[in-house]
Every structure is written in structure tokens, then in C-alpha cells.
Amino acid sequence: MSDAPTRPYEALLLLSFGGPEGPEDVVPFLENVTRGRGIPRERLAEVGQHYFRFGGVSPINAQNRVLLDALRKDLAEQGIDLPVYWGNRNWAPYLVDTLRELAADGHRRVLVLATSAYANYSGCRQYRENLAAALTQLREEGAPGAAGLRLDKLRHFYNHPGFVRPMVDHTLAALAELPEGVRDGARLAFTTHSIPSALADTSGAPGDPARGRPGGAYVAQHLETARLVAEAVAEATGVAGRPWELVYQSRSGSPQTPWLEPDIGDHLAAVHAAGAPAVVMVPIGFVSDHMEVVYDLDTQAKEQAEALGLPVSRARTVGADPRFAAAVRDLVLERAASARGERPERCALGALGPSHDLCPTDCCPAARSALPAAAGEDWKDQP
Ligand SMILES: CC1=C(CCC(=O)O)c2cc3nc(cc4[nH]c(cc5[nH]c(cc1n2)c(C)c5CCC(=O)O)c(CCC(=O)O)c4C)C(CCC(=O)O)=C3C
Ligand SMILES: [Fe+2]
Fold it and tell me: Which residues bind Fe(2+) per the record (predicted)?
């Protein structure tokens, strides 16, 4: 056991968003998501309707269960003994309950995989705030083992080949769904969650060259993944110079606050007006085909495209692709080696290089006042 390749880590925690699993869950789920976040009531009522259209069930929890199975299968196949747990920010199984169980099971050093590939407040620091709040609650409860829990978060994986290559295959499959006559002329619209522009500009670590430029590390990292996918698609199809762009979806918040633009709907209208024969939507911002994908793209954006008479298709997200599960294993082994003081190879495609392991103080700051965040340099409460 002492020479385990995952040493000093004893468990892996899959940390995700969570979603409702029936109509009665929808309103309490949305209350969890938006507590203290200043989302207009009309927007909440509208988003509730998206969930009710799907019977009140978000696909995200089922997808995380499949991902859990894929991670466990990959580790088992490699002979790696590392238990994998799952907890959410906004719905059961709640993070705090999973951490209580992890501690009771005797685990001390735990790696965390957040289902968010890019640097930004919602996808990084907010998860670290959730970890800090859960740890604090468990320590106050006196939960067995909680005082010794030490959590480390895996680095951002947007440029890992195990994330990029499945997206390339899925983009090729989505191109193949288009009528043959428009396939070679189809544009690629890479989509991600819009966020407030002010949060985008400060995303990433303080020393990141992209930080402080418009869109910050959030946009720079997405542009990199989009470029990597577009280049691989060009190579596979033999179609050079296919136009692509990064566009946004799922805008929330007050209309007076600037968020990243253009929205996918406006983009589809603009490229249609400019004569584009077809568009493939590639949701690189998400890890699974959850509600933002099946409603905002497959329902809303597809209706808009149909009204325009513009052929569109949508690439699947990475989901539980075995290459993604293998990438997670790679990140686990890499981080474990680093924690043992070794200098492992840190796999990353493209020009930006591997992300930092430990978020520095003031990485991906919140717009509002700062809350304690675990698994970063600003978490001083580590045993
Ligand atoms: C960057 C980002 C990701 C991607 C990275 C990651 O995956 O972490 C993401 C993922 C997700 N967002 C999700 C759902 C929601 N997001 C909301 C609201 C917001 N998201 C934001 C950002 C992000 N969100 C922001 C800045 C807000 C405004 C409020 C706030 O500042 O917090 C709201 C409230 C209603 C609304 O306003 O839309 C809901 C219901 C689901 C679950 C889907 C399902 O159920 O299948 C998932 C995976
Ligand atoms: Fe961060």
C-alpha cells in the first residue's frame, strides 16, 4: 500500500453542480443555486419552465453517475485502488454529506475533480468556497475524522488531450449529421456559459498573462480549446480555413450588467444573414449534455435555426468517454507524484501549458465580498 501510485492521496471526490430529479425538486434546487446571487425573478421562473419541460428532471445527476462508473472502471482496470466519491453544490448527494462520509471512512488526503474545465469563479473558486463551508460545518459538528481532512483540487483540464480529442470526434460526427451539400461550408460555433464580463476579465491566477485583458483566462482558455478542436477537425476533414468562433449561451443576471457576448441565437442569425450554409454547435464549455445543453442548444437554439432555415447540428460533450476517464487518472497520478516531491510530466496540448495545481490567493475572485475558499494558497486551516 505504501508504494501506491496515488500516495499520499486516499480518495477522489467528484464535485459537481447537481440538478433536480423530479418536479417537486425544481424550485428548491433553483433556490439553492441562486441564494444571494441577485438573479431576477422572471429569469428564475423561465429557467424553472426549462426543467418542467423535461419532467422536472435534469440529466446532470444521471450523467455524473455514469462518469463515476467510468472513473471507477478505469482505475480498477489499471489496478489502482482509489475509492471515488461524489458530492454536489446544489442538490443531493450534497457535498457536506459526502465529506462527512469520506472522513468517517478514514480518508485524510483527498483529491477533488470539479466538473468544470476552465478558470472562472463559478467553475473554480465557488467550488473551493463550497469545500471550505462544508469543512467548517463538519468541524463545528465534530464529525469524526473531519479535523484531519485535507483537500486538493485537480488542475483545469481544458487543454488535456483526454478532454480535447473526444470533442474533435464529436464535432466530426455532428458535421456528418448535416446534409452533405452544406457540410464543407459549415461553420463551427464553440459555445460556453456566458458569465458577467467583470468576472471573466479577472478570471485566472493573478500572474496569468490573460488576466486583466478582456475575457481574462476564461476566454483565453476557451479560445485555445476551440482552436485545438478546429485545427484537428480541419486535418481530419481536409477542409482548411473553415470559419469558427467562440459564442455564449445561458445568460442570466440583470440585463443592465454586461455579460460575455454574442449569444448563440444572435450569432446564428448573424451568420445566416451573412450567407453561412450551416453551423455545428460545439459546447466545449460543458462536460456533459446537461440542461444548459439539452434546453439552451437542442431546444432553443435549434428552434431559432429552424425559423431561419439554417441547418444546424450539435456535437456531444465529453461525458463519460473512456479517454476522459483516463485523463482524470493521469491528472490524479501526476498530482500525487507532485505531492511526493517528484517532477512528473504534465500533459497539455497547445500553447498555454498546464494550469497551476494550487490556486493562488485572489485566483478567480468573486464579484462580491470574499468567502473562505479551501484547496488553495489562501486556505490556512490545513492540518
Ligand atoms: C460558468 C458556468 C458553468 C460552467 C462550468 C460548470 O459546469 O461549473 C455553469 C454550469 C451550470 N449551470 C447550471 C445551472 C444553472 N446556472 C445558473 C446560473 C449561473 N450559472 C453561471 C455560470 C456557470 N454555470 C452563472 C454566472 C450564473 C448566474 C448566477 C450565479 O452567479 O451563480 C442557474 C440559475 C438560473 C439562471 O440564471 O440560469 C442554473 C439553474 C448547471 C446545471 C444544469 C442542469 O441542471 O443540468 C450547470 C452544470
Ligand atoms: Fe481558480
Answer: 193, 292
Of 314, 348, 377, which marks where a domain is finished? Answer: 314
| Cα distance between residue 157 and residue 114, in whole Å | 10
pLDDT tens digits, one per residue of 83-132: 999 999 999 999 999 999 999 999 999 999 999 999 999 999 999 999 99
- Concatenating the DSSP letter of every residue in 284-296 gives TT-SS--HHHHTI
* Cell numbers standing for residue 347: 500533459
Render pLDDT for 149-199 as a digit per residue (tens, 0 to 9).
999 999 999 999 999 999 999 999 999 999 999 999 999 999 999 999 999
Judge whether 2 lies within some domain: no
Q: What is the pLDDT of residue 383?
A: 45
For ligand 1, atom 15, the nearest C-alpha belongs to 33
Give the closest residue to 10 by CA, choosing from 19, 18, 2: 2
Give dist(CA 67, CA 83) in Å, integer. Answer: 14
CA angle 261, 296, 33 (to 5 degrees): 85
Largest CA distance in the chain: 66
Q: Is residue 70 in a domain?
A: yes
Cell reading at 149:
481532512
Provide Rg for the chain, Cα atoms.
21
With 0-12 CB in 10 A as exposed, 13-18 as middle and 19+ as buried, what is 341?
exposed
pTM above 0.90, yes or no: yes
The ipTM estimated for the assembled molecules is 0.94
Length of the chain: 383
Considering the domain boundaries, does residue 5 fall inside one? Answer: no
Ion ligand 2: residue ranges with CB closer than 5 A = 124, 359, 363-364
Q: Which ligand is nearest to the CA of 286?
A: 1
From the list 15, 9, 17, the residue with the least C-alpha distance to 111 is 9
Q: Any bridge partners for residue 85, and if so which? A: 13
Which residues have a Cβ under 8 Å from the Cβ of 41 and sit 6 or more positions away? Answer: none
Closest CA to 280 of 179, 350, 193: 179
295 and 223 inside one domain: yes
Mutate to test the pocket of ligand 1, among 252, 298, 300 (most ligand atoms within 8 A of CB): 252
> Where in the sequence is the domain holding 180, given as residue range(s)?
161-314
